[in-house]
Write a structure and sequence with these properties.
Blueprint (H helix, E strand, L loop, with lengths): L7 H9 L5 H4 L4 E2 L4 E2 L3 H8 L20 H4 L8 H10 L4 H4 L11 E6 L35 E3 L5 E2 L12 H7 L7 E6 L24 H18 L4 E4 H4 L15 H16 L6 H9 L1
Parallel strand pairs: 3-6, 3-7, 4-6
Antiparallel strand pairs: 1-2, 4-5
The structure holds zinc ion.
């Protein structure tokens, strides 16, 4: 999401700030005929998951992605839907948390990761309870009617979906300002709850600093589940992308997500896939029968 406090001060910052690195100016090339970024899905992901530093500075495209992303993206999803359904039931996860029924068919190709960048604590430190239920921004009722994205995920790993997964919804400058209506429905947007505070080196009112580490494991676990569900409905593993990389090169581009640990997210996805694919645990009766042998 964007800074909500950047007005005239941003203009001054843009005038006097040091020149951006060449990488920040370079958008991953987009083919408007095919309505997709250029390259194989894996090549696209390596560009769209470039590290995002403060004030939208982007690193170079990655040479490899952490496992299992490198071996999944663009390939057919082989996770059994019955096993996925059972996993959701066992963990009491409702359709309202994952954007609808997993039997839906999703056309979108891109899985965009954001952070809400709110609230901005300005010169204050972050509260010590941001990962706890009593931090008011973790209350999903605050986000339930926010139309900005398909999903909001709080720092406890709970999610809410203001739009169903299959609702065509735009949330980036690339979609709204550059591509227009034809891009509607190409992207799924997930906002991770994360506060910001001001960087004393930045312009007045900036929200450059995010907590470190950025996101909780529970938050990354839920993001992995939403990615699995979306890819399963799409049929192949979607291309994950950071919002800042999607909007690279567009004036006033966003700087989210900050402090996203891609290796940790990939590892949480690996653990999720193991858990979903695991055979059912023996019931108590079967355990008893086994013990009697
Ligand atoms: Zn964003």
């Amino acid at each position: 999401m964007k800074s909500r406090f950047c007005l005239a001060a941003c203009v001054l910052w843009l005038v006097f700030a040091p020149a951006a690195s060449p990488a920040a100016e370079t958008r991953c090339p987009f083919d408007e005929t095919k309505l997709e970024f250029v390259g194989t899905p894996l090549e696209q992901a390596r560009c769209l998951l470039r590290p995002v530093a403060e004030f939208s500075r982007l690193g170079q495209p990655l040479t490899t992605l952490p496992r299992p992303l490198e071996s999944l993206i663009g390939r057919r999803v082989t996770v059994n839907k019955e096993k996925l359904e059972r996993y959701l039931e066992e963990h009491d996860i409702q359709e309202t948390e994952i954007g609808g029924a997993i039997t839906n068919v999703l056309r979108a190709k891109y899985f965009v990761i954001h952070d809400v960048s709110a609230p901005n604590y300005h010169e204050q430190s972050f509260p010590t309870n941001i990962n706890e239920a009593d931090w008011k921004w973790n209350d999903l009722n605050r986000w339930r009617s926010d139309q900005a994205a398909h999903f909001f995920v709080n720092r406890l790993g709970q999610s809410v979906a203001p739009h169903t997964l299959t609702t065509p919804w735009r949330a980036t400058k690339l979609e709204v300002r550059v591509l227009g209506e034809k891009s509607r429905g190409l992207f799924v947007h997930t906002e991770l709850i994360q506060p910001r505070r001001a960087d004393p080196q930045g312009h007045p009112g900036n929200d450059g600093i995010a907590p470190l580490p950025g996101f909780t494991e529970a938050q990354l676990d839920r993001l992995a589940l939403i990615y699995l569900v979306a890819s399963s409905e799409h049929g192949t593993w979607m291309v994950p992308a950071y919002h800042a990389a999607i909007d690279a090169g567009i004036p006033d581009g966003h700087d989210d997500p900050q402090n996203f640990d891609l290796a940790l997210w990939a590892d949480r996805l690996r653990l999720l896939l193991n858990a979903v694919s695991a055979e059912p645990q023996p019931t108590d009766e079967r355990k008893i029968n086994f013990n009697r042998r």
